[in-house]
Amino acid sequence: MRFTREAQWPLLTLLLTLFLMLGLSGPARAAGDLESALSELAKANFTRKSQLVDEIARLEDPRVSPVLTAFLDGALYQHKSSRAFVAFSGQDKGVNLLSGESIEGLKKRDFRKVAINNALRGKLRGIMAELQLRNPSLETRRTAAREMLKSQDAATLPLLKRAREKETDGDVRDLLAISIAQLNALHGEDDEIRIAAIRQLDGVLYPEVRVVLNKVAASVSAAEAKTGTVEAAAHEALKQIEGLISLNKTAENLYFGISLGSVLLLSAVGLAITFGVMGVINMAHGEMMMLGAYTTFVIQQAFPNAIDVSLFFAIPAAFLVAGGVGVLIERGIIRHLYGRPLETLLATFGISLVLQQAVRTIFSPLNQSVSTPSWMSGTLEINGALALTYNRLYIILFSLCVLAGLILLLKKTLFGLQMRAVTQNRRMASSMGIRTGWVDALTFGLGSGIAGVAGVALSQLTNVGPNLGQAYIIDSFMVVVFGGVGNLMGTFIGAMSLGIANKFLEPFAGAVLAKILILVFIILYIQKYPRGMFALKGRSAGD
Amino acid sequence: MQIKHIDQNAILYLNGVSVSFDGFKALNSLSLFLEPGELRAIIGPNGAGKTTMMDVITGKTKPDQGDVIYNGTVDLTRFDEAAIANMGIGRKFQKPTVIESLTVFENLEMALAGGRGVFASLFHRLKADQRQRIEEILLLVDLQDRVGHLAGSLSHGQKQWLEIGMLLIQKPGVLLIDEPAAGMTDIETEKTAVLFKRLAKDHTLVVVEHDMDFIKALACKVTVLHEGSVLAEGSLEQVQNNEKVIEVYLGR
Amino acid sequence: MTLGPLTRTLLNDRGSQILMVSVLAMTVLIPLCNLAFPEGSALHVSTYMVTLLGKYLCYALLALAVDLIWGYCGILSLGHGAFFALGGYAMGMYLMRQIGDRGVYGDPVLPDFMVFLNWQELPWFWYGFDNFAFAALMIMLVPGVLAFLFGWLAFRSRVTGVYLSIITQALTYALLLAFFRNDMGFGGNNGLTDFKDILGFNIQADGTRAVLFVLSGVALMAGFLICKAIVQSKLGRVLIAVRDSESRTRFLGYRVEHFKLFVFVVSAVLAGIAGALYVPQVGIINPGEFSPVNSIEIIIWVAVGGRGTLYGAVVGALVVNFAKTYFTGAFPELWLFLLGGLFVISTLYLPKGLVGIIGQVRNRLAARSATAQTLKTSE
């Protein structure tokens, strides 16, 4: 979730390199300037190198960026005899920096490395950043501005100011302003400027801001800082930021909790139909999810070029596959066992074993890899401290859609009406001409089909293997029992509260212990409310 | 809430009992008064609260309001089913419920007083007088030649009788009987009515019934329940001529 | 003969008599054939076989425990594997302490895994397990107390039927997760293993194996007699009454929850003993024994054998486990298909299990011979 330095640099350089290779930057000046500067760079001492780097950076030459990138990465070499400059990209591969051609079969021992030290590296980073801050692409500028937050070098202040003046985009301007404030807070001429800068940083959540403020505040402890001093201002700002961050942490936990809750909801809502509405314990419910996940896998295997749209085909396909298997199970086995819930439980457990082994035999006992469509990867950054991953976001939305669709189906359609009629008074329903047998089969098929759809969602979160269902079945039962049988709203609230409770316990207890605590809680809860949160009351609810 | 003078003679006294399920008032401030040795029939349309009333008396359902006084002193609402059963209140369900996998004899033995605790039952031995008592009841409910058969193999009527026998063997003070005539043949119904009249001498009987012929045969005081409270009380004839009862039953 | 009253009251049916005689014969003959006849002799039974059969006897005792509550009282516990495993862990802890300084790290007190985890001293709950009598007590007490607490809560609040099944499953699942944790102090993922000796006897020795086998057989017979005594008493009839009609039993004045609690605890203790006998024979106990699937498998042994008969449970445990050993060796792919199929077939077509089929066949034969008899007399 947090911004990672490691990940950012290669990406940045890659973008930039690509960009400059396309020759989109400004008009090139005489090519010889770069060549001569490079030749000198190879021989110069570090003080001279520093000046040379400045000179190179001022050249408006599309090759500047790849040259500096290579230099920064320690990949800049000069051929001992031909004097050509090459950026190595592997053991024996590289690019001739001046001609731009790729070359293979190089031998490192024919080259001399252009040496670099840490001071130069720091300088180069700033220069690269400035290059990017001037880049015409907004995205590049944004990334660069974000990257500049790391800079604590007073020397970058003028370039930041220049960039900010020219900048047209509000977000990037804000980022640059933060960087400027950081530098002012660190190196400002007098306390007034520094305190004003610190005030500006108040409430800014980027982790770099905290690093800077901590550095400013470090000399004096919070208790000793006198009001009005720079240190006191820094401590105050830090306190504010810490408060905001813990708020964001809570929000993040909530988000994780809701996303776990939606996974639970997806896996339990089908069970709420078969168990809650029909009173059938389907131990093979988890395997229905597994079938859904494998359907996704098969569809992706069949159309490897259409990963981005595969889920849209997988959802109906998984519904049909799992639902179809569900109808078969109901017609073949469960209908002979109505009124004998414990036997149903055992028979469906048998089916779950058969389905697991079938998948093992047909595919393999190993996990299969299901790809994530590009639109589901990445994160939505809310602020410096809170970023939401898209896949979880989509699953939350998806689970809500499934729930809403199901409620509509039950409340507004003829099938839903027949289903409720059959569950409430089978004999009356049948005497009114409803084919109760088919309603049973379709209801069970519906529950199973939804499990299949849940499997599609799960395939995006966990490993797809023969044991996928086992991992979720107990949790799903807990949700249904906790929420109260026969009540979709109860299932929803049950799933969400268990998901959120789990995620809030995790920081204190660890993942496994949190899960154990939740299980123990439910075991005790059921003792108190044997029929769950939203139990039906009245005579009919008894035995 | 209605406050009534508590008669010391009452064996069972329901005082302003209310029960609601999710906002639906199954019993609405119901008061009922039973004398020892009385035979009482309770009628009323579906949903009038007959079964809920039995649930409250036997401790299956706890009322939201009101109390149930047994023998003038004991408040039954504070006890559970087993305790209430052991105090001498027997209940017969609408659907005959006997222990199908046990024999007729074993069913009666189960119902016999004594050996109710876990360890008491583990080391329980039947004494001669208890055997005698079982024989008596077998005779009373006319099952002496099916004594070794599994209860599950009995006919519907016989199961009803066995269940009544199981209640009688406990020498109950009050017997609550839910629709005994349902599913019985005419001859069985007639025999049952005779049996009840005979039993009423030693026991208090409350019979919930739909079958008007059966109630006529019982020839006893009738209470009409409607929407959870008493609509009318009196002899069958009085009740049948009651304006309010006619309105409820005929929807006039 | 002293067996007179026993056969009259406890072994009053043909199935029980046959079972007791067969188990007795097995208990005597198999160790005898293992020890008395040399390898290569036609009558020799290998030590591998003795251990395997000993394992089955433990399973049979476990199945008996499940039949007592499921077959008679209608409580379908999907967590009985947990009681079995707890008994096993109690025994495993004793065996671990017996290793002493012969472990890989040679610590005189701490078991290897604790040394590996850098623990400095023995956790309090490991105290006393170097004493066999204490361990033996714990083998019964730990499952018994857990069953008591769990049952007391569950039965008092009238959690019944599938709800009870599901929360028993949750219970064993929670224990599974807990025992997987290293900081629980039970060896985590690897469990307890590398046992050396029991009461001073080498656990690998043929003689020890034979004795453990005999003990398993004796425990099975004793367990059978205890269960039989329970179901033959009036208490047994109350259990059946609870199974058939819980509310009728309640309205007859029985405190159903007390009866359920009693058999549940008895059953858990039997399961614990089975687990304790199992561990020294297989040489390992790990959290896998808590897996919910294991617990459901026990149910299928009972269902296949025929529930509500006690001897059916023993037959079922033996038959299903023989089949499992055979198929997982010969056709590993097929075993889960077969096991799954067994679940379906036994619930759909064999409500009374294998012993039910035998009973039906016998009845049919009896009816045929009876008609033959009448035909003969009428001639």
| Radius of gyration of chain C, in angstroms, nearest whole number | 22 Å
Number of strands of chain B: 10
Low-confidence stretches of chain C: none
Cα distance, first to last residue of chain C? 44 Å
Largest sheet of chain B: 6 strands, mixed
Give the end-to-end Cα distance of chain B, rounded to a whole number of Å. Answer: 29 Å
The count of strands of chain C amounts to 4
Biggest pleated sheet of chain C: 2 strands, antiparallel
**Percent range for β-strand residues of chain C:** under 5%
Number of folding domains of chain C? 1
Task: Provide mean pLDDT of chain C, rounded.
Answer: 90
Shape of chain B: globular
Strand content of chain B: 15-25%
Oligomer: heterotrimer
Which structural class should the secondary elements of chain C be placed in? mainly alpha
Portion of residues within helices of chain C: over 70%
> If interface size is counted as residues with C-beta under 8 Å from the partner's C-beta, which chains form the largest one?
A-C, 45 and 46 residues
Query: Count of helical segments of chain C?
Result: 15
Any low-confidence stretches of chain B, pLDDT <50, length ≥5? none
Give a written overview of the molecule.
The complex is a heterotrimer of chains A (543), B (252) and C (379). With 543 residues, chain A is mostly helical. In chain A, 67% of the residues lie in helices and 5% in strands. Chain A has helices at 5-21, 32-43, 46-58, 64-72, 118-133, 138-148, 157-166, 170-187, 191-201, 207-217, 230-277, 285-302, 307-332, 341-362, 390-412, 414-424, 426-431, 436-459, 468-483, 488-509, 511-528, and strands at residues 76-79, 85-88, 93-96, 102-104, 111-113, 379-383, 386-389. In chain A, a hairpin with a 4-residue loop joins strand 2 (85-88) and strand 3. Chain A is elongated. Helix content of chain B is 35%, strand content 24%. Chain B has ten helices and ten strands. In chain B, the strands form two sheets. In chain B, strands 6-7-8-3-9-10 form a six-stranded mixed beta sheet, sandwiched between helices. The mean pLDDT of chain B is 85. In chain C, 72% of the residues lie in helices and 2% in strands. Chains in contact: A-B, A-C, B-C.
